[in-house]
Design a protein that fits this description.
The structure holds two protein chains of two kinds. Chain A has 17 helices and 22 strands. By secondary structure, chain A is α/β, with parallel strands linked by helices. Chain A has a six-stranded mixed beta sheet with strand order 6-7-8-3-9-10, with helices on both faces. Chain B is about 70% helix and about 0% strand. Chain B is globular and about 65 Å long. The chains are: A alpha/beta, B mainly alpha.
């Protein structure tokens, strides 16, 4: 690896009001190097990268980027235009794509002169296909981006950066939405580009890919760079210790004998737009003291399955029984009353009412309870006492129980939902992508709570795209593909990965 | 005479296109604003401002095209007010738009009364005359319908082509469509979200004002209070009908023009039997029905009505 320095962040600090997002961070990057930037949620990784790219203006510090000759030049701060001109490209965690435009227009956007009265699409197309050949990243160019898959959109995002001839590429959680295979392919492409001289910084929560694909690891904690380590010298344990500042305990799954069935689905059919996204389940049973893991790439019927179990989707045919009681009327209220606890996939959108307070959100599923209301009036004091107790027990941190729930961070929103669900001691728990986007501490907490519920006697259905999570928690693993469930042939990454891709039925 | 006979006359189609002209300007203007992600309910007031300022400029001796220019500038200026309130300040687009409508209308009436304190009827100007194109004007049917319109109708049709071309064939159009779908996409590529949106609103508002100017400088020859009479609001509905596409905007405006031309003719036919208000309602009812049908598949610009602030995503 060449040791020529291409980027140097010098003493960057950024405060938002009273919160210190970054404090005196120094970081450097060399030509052809792949650097992984790690840290818990809120450690300041994204803020740091946004300062590099000019989205935020640092309070203190400077950035130097190598010019084409390799000499470090100071970068004007707070101007994305300047960062792009200096050869820095950023792929944001939340895609910055115009969905009404096709990939070609999205890629070319901003590099054409807005005063021009004509466009040279042929030249752009030629340059893009060259880049596709060199990088191995391909995507359809003429379809509106809104119709592309998540993986394709990700590639369009990276092509956007490469089209601007970047020498430094920043990727913010590039694999959060990709399948294991897609993620591996992406990193292989990135590795190849790095060998051609591209320097890469990527942010990730997934230790496995960090260890497999980076050259060097830098860890941020509470906005401070707490250490760097060559990937060759690192293992999961050392990195985790650097991130959290202490050893994390891995939740242990003890052997347990499953009891009576808590969920039985028979001949459930939910029609989709085509045969492919039609959910078709001849039989599914979850018993108490059992975690059933449903692995699969999102969009293969998980939403319909979760909808049926939470009562928001009415199956076309089939029967549902919860704890032995047949479900006559399919509605969320029925399901809650029968003892189904729901941890929804999109916690911001479906898990909370963002404008209502933390305390209100904690009782929102039991508004008919006498503890919560009396004669149709809310018992505000009892609700507040309940919220204080739960916030303490489940470690929900934020601006207070009377603050709107949307002000909480993702991890704390999830803890709020856990508190609401687990306090009701549900018979069946539907956990849909329960740790997506959570940092290690919060994810470990979710795992521990799920295992506790299992010991207590709940049956748990765990829908997840994260294979490591399913392998770690589930007593039994099913794979969902094209709306059909199949038992995993073997309990290993490769077999299940192939089944997720539909290669082995 | 039945409906079919009415619809087959030259004068019916000529009238339809004439009635549609201000709407074409208005829909195109609203369409540009909304494609950039900003609803411009200032349209009704901007019509008034365009009608008043254009006519008054001509009356003061600016010449007809001078009047058109003044109207466009006035529209652009009120557009800028709306743009500043809704884009960098991120205020509610509904409230700001309605405010601009009230403001522009009042300022126009005030200017009119200040300039002409004691008149009961406004002074007339010499309006645009129908263009007489050699040979083409004498064609049967097409001649009277297309080639005996005024220059402003031609300008409106030209604008349909121009707006279509800009939106679909130029880098600027791509950027405008992107900023209306996802402002962050534009920001991440180093373009200015504020610049694009403000520019689109100012340009769109200038077009709207031309719709007003057409009324005082081509359809009529003077400015009257209340003459805009909801035409701006019709344009807001027509944008949805047009699914934010210039070609469909033309069709929608023509359709409304045709309904309006039809109701005037039906009134004279059967006015004795049915109250005239029923016919006056007709174009609006038909446009509501058309809207209900069209709105089902409407492709709203995703970022419409959503303010965007730098550094916040």
């Amino acid at each position: 690896m060449a040791s020529e320095k291409v980027l140097s962040l010098n003493g960057l600090s950024k405060r938002f009001g009273s919160i210190v997002a970054n404090k005196d961070v120094n970081l450097s990057l060399h030509r052809g190097e792949v650097l992984a930037l790690l840290g818990e949620n809120g450690a300041g990784k994204t803020t740091l990268m946004n300062m590099l790219f000019g989205h935020y203006l640092p309070d203190e510090g400077s950035v130097e980027v190598a010019d084409e000759g390799g000499t470090l030049q100071p970068l004007p701060l707070g101007q994305p235009q300047a960062a792009i001109a200096a050869g820095v490209g950023m792929v944001h965690q939340h895609f910055t794509l115009a969905e009404n435009l096709n990939a070609l227009d999205n890629i070319v956007l901003g590099s054409e002169d807005l005063r021009a009265f004509r466009r040279n699409r042929a030249a752009a197309r030629g340059k893009i296909s060259d880049i596709m050949k060199r990088s191995g990243l391909t995507a359809p160019l003429d379809v509106p981006v809104g119709r592309l898959s998540v993986g394709e959109r990700q590639r369009v995002e990276i092509l956007k950066a490469l089209y601007r001839d970047v020498r430094i590429l920043v990727l913010d959680e590039p694999t959060a939405v990709l399948t294991p295979q897609e993620a591996d392919t992406l990193f292989e492409n990135i590795g190849a580009m790095a060998r051609d001289g591209l320097s890469v910084i990527f942010i990730s929560h997934k230790l496995r890919e960090v260890l497999a694909f980076s050259h060097r690891i830098a860890v941020l904690r509470h906005g401070v760079n707490v250490g760097e380590i060559a990937t060759a010298d690192a293992d999961e344990r050392t990195i985790a210790r650097m991130m959290v500042g202490a050893d994390t305990e891995r939740a242990e799954r003890s052997a347990m004998e499953p009891g009576a069935p808590v969920l039985s689905l028979r001949d459930i059919r939910v029609p989709g737009r085509s045969e492919r996204d039609t959910l078709d389940i001849p039989e599914l049973e979850v018993r108490s003291h059992e975690i059933v893991g449903i692995a699969g790439v999102s969009g293969n019927g998980q939403a319909a399955l979760a909808g049926v179990i939470s009562g928001t989707v009415q199956p076309q045919s089939g029967t549902i029984a919860i704890g032995g009681d047949a479900v006559r009327e399919c509605s969320p209220t029925t399901m809650i009353h029968l003892g189904v606890g729901r941890i929804p996939e999109d916690r911001h959108h479906d898990g909370i009412v963002g404008s209502m307070s933390v305390a209100e959100n904690m009782v929102i599923e039991r508004l008919d309870d006498q503890e919560v209301q009396k004669n149709g009036l809310l018992r505000r004091e009892a609700i507040a006492r309940n919220a204080e107790r739960l916030a303490e027990a489940y470690d929900v941190r934020g601006p207070g129980i009377q603050a709107p729930a949307r002000l909480l961070s993702g991890g704390n929103i999830q803890k709020l939902i856990l508190a609401r669900v687990f306090e009701e001691a549900p018979k069946l728990i539907l956990a849909n992508q329960p740790t997506r986007g959570l940092d290690m501490g919060a994810a470990a907490e979710v795992a521990r709570r799920l295992l506790d519920a299992r010991s207590r006697g709940a049956g748990i259905i765990l829908i997840s795209e994260d294979l490591d999570e399913v392998l770690g928690l589930a007593d039994r693993i099913l794979v969902i593909h094209d709306g059909k469930l199949g038992a995993a042939h073997a309990r290993d990454r490769e077999t299940i990965g192939l089944m997720m891709a539909g290669e082995m039925a | 005479m039945d409906i079919l006979q009415i619809v087959l006359t030259e004068s019916f189609w000529a009238a339809s296109l004439r009635i549609a002209t201000p709407l074409i300007f208005g829909v195109l203007g609203a369409l540009i604003c909304e494609r950039a992600g900003v609803l411009n309910l200032g349209i009704e007031g901007i019509f008034v401002a365009g009608a008043m300022s254009g006519w008054m400029a001509v009356w003061l001796g600016a010449g007809l095209w001078g009047g058109v220019l003044v109207a466009a500038l006035a529209g652009g200026l009120f557009g800028l007010v709306h743009a500043i309130l809704t884009v960098p300040l991120g205020l509610s687009q509904h409230v700001s738009g309605l405010g601009v409508t009230l403001f522009a209308t009042s300022v126009s009436y005030f200017a009119y009364r200040t300039a002409l304190p004691n008149v009961s009827s406004p002074p007339r100007i010499e309006p645009f005359r129908p263009l007489d194109v050699p040979v083409l004007s004498d064609l049967p049917f097409l001649g009277p319908v297309l080639f005996q319109q005024t220059a402003l109708t031609w300008l409106a049709l030209l604008m349909v082509v121009l707006v279509w071309y800009v939106l679909n064939r130029t880098p600027l159009g791509v950027a405008i469509k992107a900023v209306g779908d996802n402002p962050s996409s534009v920001d991440a590529q180093g373009l200015s979200v504020y610049g694009l949106r403000i520019g689109a609103i100012v340009a769109g508002s200038a077009l709207m004002a031309l719709g007003g100017a057409f009324l005082t400088m081509s359809a009529f020859d003077a400015f009257f209070f209340g003459m805009i009479n909801g035409r701006g609001w019709i344009c807001i509905a027509l944008v949805i009908f047009a699914n934010w596409r210039p070609g469909k905007a033309l069709i929608g405006a023509l359709l409304f023009g045709a309904f309006d031309a039809l109701q005037v003719r039906l009134q004279t036919e059967v006015g004795a039997l049915v109250p005239s208000q029923v016919f006056l309602m007709m174009p609006y009812i038909l446009s509501i029905i058309a809207l209900v049908i069209a709105a089902r598949g409407a492709d709203y610009p995703r970022a419409l009505l959503q303010p965007w602030f730098k550094g916040q995503r």
